[in-house]
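Exercise: predict the fold of this chain.
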Amino acid sequence: MSFSRSDAMAVADLLKVAAQTEILPRFRNLSAGAVRAKTSQLDLVTDADEAAERMIEAELRRLFPTAVVVGEEGVSRNPRLLDGLDAADLAFILDPVDGTLNFASGLPLFGVMAAVTMKGEVVCGIILDPISDDWAMAVRGEGAWIQRPDGSTASLQVSPAVPLAEMAGNVSWRYLPENLRPVVTGNLPKVAMAADLRCSAHTYRLIAAGHLHFSFSSSVMPWDHAAGWLIHREAGGYTAHFDGSTYRPANRSGGLISAPDEASWRAVRDALLPPQA
């Protein structure tokens, strides 16, 4: 079994339909009851997240009847859905609205993400920006590109390596253990710039296109990273957990750092984290 570019475009088109019918009509148009806290007021779900996930899941099951579908909101209700990812012949990992806090705040910085795995290996990644109406995409072994609605494409390539003091990146430290938070935040002046977009979708699009040098994430839930990890890798980048181990969607601990190459990854890791982290 393989997953082709035409398969990827079928999924990309599905994400776009979901955005147009379930997400964008609700953007800046959410009633008070349409936004709910999950674990905290910084961890939200909206009617758009849930409706888009239901639609995408139903259509994926129609197009790929034997596939496992794992969505962020479904896992919120039933965490055991994650248990079968490594064994599934074909699985889809969905984040129907990545950057929900931005979406609920009326900030046009959110995306729709889908990753495809086979036996736990990511073989396709798709990140739709509903506002710019294009996709960042990758198929394993075939590179990464921006796909525009008119069919034109532009290849993605990570930034050339630069010294640590010149690096700009996205640093999401909210889920770090309490003892590491002051260490990481205290080390941020070692890089040129560090922000948090509150959106993995746009972070991965930026690092894959060479507009940021690195990303640092304290949370490794698969819907936040599987699609972007492959896009960044196919654009020439390097990603590993804090301990240097290889990323797999089934591994949900240890944090992630992405950078243009392994030497840059090590420079960021050594600068921001203590040796034993």
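Check your answer against the key: The chain has a mean pLDDT of 96.
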